[in-house]
Amino acid sequence: MSTSASTTTAPTRFLETNGQRYAYRRFGKRSARPLLCLQHFTGTLDNWDPAVTDALAVEREVILFDNAGIGGSSGDVPQTMAGMTKHVLAFLDGLRLTTCDVLGFSLGGVLAQQMAQDRPSIVRRMILVGTAPRGGEDIMHLDKPSLAKHLQDPSNRGYGVLQKIFFAPTTTSQAAGEAFIGRLMQRKEDRDPASGPNVASAQIAAFREWERFTGERFADLKSIRHPTFVVQGVHDEMIPVRNSYWLAENLPNAVLLVYPDAGHGSLFQYHDSFTRHAAAFLTSDSDSAVF
Amino acid sequence: MSTSASTTTAPTRFLETNGQRYAYRRFGKRSARPLLCLQHFTGTLDNWDPAVTDALAVEREVILFDNAGIGGSSGDVPQTMAGMTKHVLAFLDGLRLTTCDVLGFSLGGVLAQQMAQDRPSIVRRMILVGTAPRGGEDIMHLDKPSLAKHLQDPSNRGYGVLQKIFFAPTTTSQAAGEAFIGRLMQRKEDRDPASGPNVASAQIAAFREWERFTGERFADLKSIRHPTFVVQGVHDEMIPVRNSYWLAENLPNAVLLVYPDAGHGSLFQYHDSFTRHAAAFLTSDSDSAVF
Questions:
Q1: Which of A242, A243, A245 to mutate to test the interface with B (most CBs of B within 10 A)?
Q2: Which class for B215: exposed (0-12), middle (13-18), buried (19 or more C-beta within 10 A)?
Q3: Other Cβ atoms within 10 Å of A120 Cβ, number
Q4: Nearest to A218 by CA among A249, A239, A242, A241
Q5: Fewer CB within 10 A of the end CB, N or C, for chain B?
């Protein structure tokens, strides 16, 4: 694999395993332990910001992944996070990877937590951006007014809606959103098909299930000992920042970073800062999350 | 001034102004804009951890300061944060400093906020560690069981009590506390007199006043535009972490970092990490707090 490939140029590859086909892209500096990037609600391989994934690929291999039923991957989108996580593990098994670091954004951050619980050995360190623990609150309620006004506005199409809902309603954050959309559009060929309403409805069902908990709230986080870096924008309307507070308060080994003047897409808005901190975190081989 | 001076060796100096004598120490790389360090409840010049202030002094001048009635400074300890802040400003005026960066820890972080409001031009960037906004909650209630059990234990004397109340009740955090106490004791000569009960009672009165607010809660933070770096340990019993959440949510230009397995003294426990992040923040000349 050429190390000159990037988020914009890496060819889409396919892994066939257990009767399932998974689409993925793989690029960056070859390393024994790649960084697996798990994507947000309805996001495909084409929703990764080159400013983030190319910067992280300078010192490690990056793998972008379409879960079942997304982009070029076959199958149906599971209606639970546990179901989606089974596909992540099957994909890694198919690649014969026994360990990786994980960058999970939003829905992807939920899957990262589930991976750490279901197969702790396969995760070394994880970065959870704009996500929530099981039993969190106000997770992806797209019908609430602050989100619905953008999602139901017919003048917002395609990537344009992401600028509205991933970024804060300030001049600075919206400008960062516009730049983000521009970067997503740098890839011209070999693009994924966009997700349809069936993807959205299955993933929303999974979020609803993730909001439920039994027993002591957040107790399941105590067993996740992996060094974890939790990141969120302080004005995230899609998954409010208090969900990251709960992650930091209940994961025993997590550093929390909260960005100002930013919404759900804080990692894209502050890509220079985010990738510098993320790289420092990933480079550490301490048992502690502190970097 | 010798740049070889350090937290452990810098002589105590005195500034006379307006009939008041202020004790201070000044060391590090000479710079146009020094870092003013504002100390915690009852803390003196001798409560600064060399691992923190020496590391920060590598690239900038550091000034440690005894407020009125503390250590070698004359006068009475004011019973309000505003009163203490007047002394900080008088001290800076006496040194003919028109601008500085501020590291405010705990009570010192309250004074930093008050400085930024009372004379915005004198503060460029500020780091607020283990502190709270006006109207915060559970700020320095030393009579609550989790703190009283240590403060009222006669076997805890002098610095020993700091290990208990500044660090989390885990083996790792307590070990970090023991190392911290060892570093505080490296300075053998020219030490400050310890604070007595009159200092504590005046400062506690000031904390009680700081918990009160009128009008819209936290609205006063909206006008503080200074780039701010908010840091806290997730298990801080003296000033719980939710106070830092409120700072990050209401200061318009603040990055929040929360450390795991740490209490009030997170900056001392994770001095390597803290000083690396603090130096990166202070070195930035961006209008944004993001670093």
A1: A245
A2: exposed
A3: 12
A4: A249
A5: N
Q: How far apart are CA B73 and CA A271, in angstroms?
A: 46
Angle at which helix B81-94 crosses helix B107-118, to 10 degrees, equals: 70
Residue with tokens 């929040």: B256
Which of A80, A110, A132 shows the shortest CA–CA distance to A236?
A132
Q: How many residues does chain A have?
A: 291
Residue reference for tokens 């804080």: A266
Residue A13 and residue A23 in contact, taking contact as beta carbons nearer than 8 Å: yes
Instruction: List chain A pLDDT tens, one digit each, 291 residues.
Output: 445 899 999 999 999 999 999 999 999 999 989 999 999 999 999 999 999 999 999 999 999 999 999 999 999 999 999 999 999 999 999 999 999 999 999 999 999 999 999 999 999 999 999 999 999 999 999 999 999 999 999 888 888 899 999 999 999 999 999 999 999 999 999 999 999 999 999 999 999 999 999 999 999 999 999 999 999 999 999 999 999 999 999 999 999 999 999 999 999 999 999 999 999 999 999 999 999
Dist CA B64 CA B81 (whole Å): 18
Torsion, Cα B37 B41 B45 B46, to 10 degrees, reads -130
Which long-range contacts (C-beta less than 8 Å, at least 24 apart) are formed by A153-160? A158/A194, A159/A184, A159/A185
User: Residue A291's closest chain B neighbor by CA?
Assistant: B273
Phi, psi of A75 (to 5 degrees): 90, -175
β-sheet bridge partners, residue B126: B102, B228
Do B7 and B64 contact (CB within 8 A), yes or no? Answer: yes
- Cα separation, A62 vs B59, whole angstroms: 35
Helix (H, G, I), strand (E, B) or coil at B286: coil
- Residues β-bridged to residue A15: A22
Contact B235, A252 (CB under 8 A): no
| CB within 8 Å: B255 and A253 | no
* First vs last C-alpha separation in chain A: 31
Instruction: State the Cα–Cα distance between residues A247 and A109, nearest whole angstrom.
Output: 11
Q: Inspect the interface and report whether the beta carbons of B258 and A255 lie closer than 8 Å.
A: yes
**Are A290 and B245 inside 8 Å of each other by CB?**
no
Of B96, B94, B103, B93, the closest CA to residue B63 belongs to B103
- Whose tokens are 């924008």? That residue is A233
